Amino acid sequence: MEMQKKLYLETFGCQMNVSDSEKIVGLMQGIGYVETKDSTQADLILLNTCSIRAKAEQKVYGHLGKFKSLKESRPGLIIGVGGCVAQQEGEKLLKRAPFVNLVFGTHNLHQLQDMVRGAEAGRRSSATDFIDDEARFDLFLPQGREGGVSRFVTVMQGCDNFCAYCIVPHVRGREISRSAAKIVDEVRQLTASGVTEVTLLGQNVNSYAAKNPGEPDFADLLRLVAELDGVKRLRFTTSHPKDMSQRLIDCFAEIPKLAPHIHLPAQSGSDRVLKAMNRGYTAEQYLAKVTALKKACPQIQFTGDMIVGFPGETEEDFLATLDLIQEVQYADLFSFIYSARPGTAAAMLPDLTDPAEKQARLERLQVLQKKVTLERNQSLVGTVQQVLVEGLSSSGECLFGRTGGNRATLLAGDLALSGQLVEVKVVEGLQTLLKAELL
């Protein structure tokens, strides 16, 4: 009997990369590969990379280095790099890392089977061409990993906003939306396989179908998906504040299956910095959207992103960001020091702030957010929450799930509850999770 070939896949970065990796698994299964968690046992090693943060390219080259000795001991091992760094570097990656067999960009997953077959025959290749036509959606297989409770469904790709700091339009391309019919069909297939929670995914879901006359807008797409019987909970990410419509806000009041959580990146609380970032809104306008969301859904939980040390940021600008955090009361926040990315407008701006000052600001912000997060988690003690049980916790000692507000929750119970929405009473609020008991 022929031995099955083994795939080792590492994923870096955003939810879009996670979704792409699920597709990669399916593609590789189609040519005889099964996943392994042990890179030393792999016949094929793929890295799905992210280029959002500083020195992403150098980090990828450094990470690849740990597989070089494996390749030397097993010359037949195939090594490939995909995702945003691959899109950026292209054939340069093959030249700088001669032990890499293939490089595939963000629009080229559909070519991966042929590229791997070519590598098996001894050919090296690079594919990083953009395909700016809806036909590219037909080139991707549905999610490859079987089972699971919660899955991402891509509704659009790319971004047209060109925020001054952001490389996404350069490595993911311009916005393009799938048809609602294909999205609904994919969700229907997922729920038939046991998935109960679906997250609709895009770089800016709020502008879904803006270029597709006759298609539902995003608010109507949410309603269409929520009507499917197998969907118990519905989420979406990510939203650009400037495109958050009142119709979409109303969905939080009108669609019971829509989870009371939104990821709404502000990036800064300073109007001056927001203008330099090309974000398209002021702090006051952002807070007005937050207020409207809280009115529509009083229990809604906010998460977001903040950048510290954007070129020209003053102490006054930074304090405005801290004020915004206090006002919104984020349940959690991803925060970073600004890093220049090649090809972006902000990379051309003078950046005179001392790196030590940027680091100090980041630490001040994170101390504040840590305090807010703990207080919010503790405020849930004694409340009744709906938790979607995802399975066993990492320790294997209890069940793990998430509240509608996306709070990680541990509880005692039978594994048969996996995939079920259960009511719990929160008994403890910790820094990173809740503890609860079944009702």
UniProtKB/TrEMBL annotation:
<keyword id="KW-0963">Cytoplasm</keyword>
<feature type="binding site">
    <location>
        <position position="159"/>
    </location>
    <ligand>
        <name>[4Fe-4S] cluster 2</name>
    </ligand>
</feature>
<feature type="binding site">
    <location>
        <position position="84"/>
    </location>
    <ligand>
        <name>[4Fe-4S] cluster 1</name>
    </ligand>
</feature>
<feature type="binding site">
    <location>
        <position position="14"/>
    </location>
    <ligand>
        <name>[4Fe-4S] cluster 1</name>
    </ligand>
</feature>
<comment type="subunit">
    <text>Monomer.</text>
</comment>
<dbReference type="InterPro" id="IPR023404">
    <property type="entry name" value="rSAM_horseshoe"/>
</dbReference>
<feature type="domain" description="Radical SAM core">
    <location>
        <begin position="145"/>
        <end position="375"/>
    </location>
</feature>
<dbReference type="InterPro" id="IPR007197">
    <property type="entry name" value="rSAM"/>
</dbReference>
<dbReference type="Pfam" id="PF00919">
    <property type="entry name" value="UPF0004"/>
</dbReference>
<dbReference type="Pfam" id="PF01938">
    <property type="entry name" value="TRAM"/>
</dbReference>
<keyword id="KW-0949">S-adenosyl-L-methionine</keyword>
<keyword id="KW-0808">Transferase</keyword>
<dbReference type="InterPro" id="IPR006463">
    <property type="entry name" value="MiaB_methiolase"/>
</dbReference>
<feature type="binding site">
    <location>
        <position position="166"/>
    </location>
    <ligand>
        <name>[4Fe-4S] cluster 2</name>
    </ligand>
</feature>
<comment type="similarity">
    <text>Belongs to the methylthiotransferase family. MiaB subfamily.</text>
</comment>
<dbReference type="GO" id="GO:0005829">
    <property type="term" value="C:cytosol"/>
</dbReference>
<dbReference type="InterPro" id="IPR013848">
    <property type="entry name" value="Methylthiotransferase_N"/>
</dbReference>
<dbReference type="InterPro" id="IPR038135">
    <property type="entry name" value="Methylthiotransferase_N_sf"/>
</dbReference>
<dbReference type="GO" id="GO:0051539">
    <property type="term" value="F:4 iron, 4 sulfur cluster binding"/>
</dbReference>
<feature type="domain" description="TRAM">
    <location>
        <begin position="378"/>
        <end position="439"/>
    </location>
</feature>
<feature type="binding site">
    <location>
        <position position="50"/>
    </location>
    <ligand>
        <name>[4Fe-4S] cluster 1</name>
    </ligand>
</feature>
<keyword id="KW-0819">tRNA processing</keyword>
<dbReference type="InterPro" id="IPR005839">
    <property type="entry name" value="Methylthiotransferase"/>
</dbReference>
<dbReference type="Pfam" id="PF04055">
    <property type="entry name" value="Radical_SAM"/>
</dbReference>
<dbReference type="GO" id="GO:0035597">
    <property type="term" value="F:tRNA-2-methylthio-N(6)-dimethylallyladenosine(37) synthase activity"/>
</dbReference>
<protein>
    <recommendedName>
        <fullName>tRNA-2-methylthio-N(6)-dimethylallyladenosine synthase</fullName>
        <ecNumber>2.8.4.3</ecNumber>
    </recommendedName>
</protein>
<keyword id="KW-0411">Iron-sulfur</keyword>
<feature type="domain" description="MTTase N-terminal">
    <location>
        <begin position="5"/>
        <end position="121"/>
    </location>
</feature>
<dbReference type="InterPro" id="IPR020612">
    <property type="entry name" value="Methylthiotransferase_CS"/>
</dbReference>
<keyword id="KW-0408">Iron</keyword>
<feature type="binding site">
    <location>
        <position position="163"/>
    </location>
    <ligand>
        <name>[4Fe-4S] cluster 2</name>
    </ligand>
</feature>
<dbReference type="InterPro" id="IPR006638">
    <property type="entry name" value="Elp3/MiaA/NifB-like_rSAM"/>
</dbReference>
<comment type="function">
    <text>Catalyzes the methylthiolation of N6-(dimethylallyl)adenosine (i(6)A), leading to the formation of 2-methylthio-N6-(dimethylallyl)adenosine (ms(2)i(6)A) at position 37 in tRNAs that read codons beginning with uridine.</text>
</comment>
<keyword id="KW-0479">Metal-binding</keyword>
<dbReference type="InterPro" id="IPR058240">
    <property type="entry name" value="rSAM_sf"/>
</dbReference>
<dbReference type="GO" id="GO:0046872">
    <property type="term" value="F:metal ion binding"/>
</dbReference>
<dbReference type="InterPro" id="IPR002792">
    <property type="entry name" value="TRAM_dom"/>
</dbReference>
<keyword id="KW-0004">4Fe-4S</keyword>
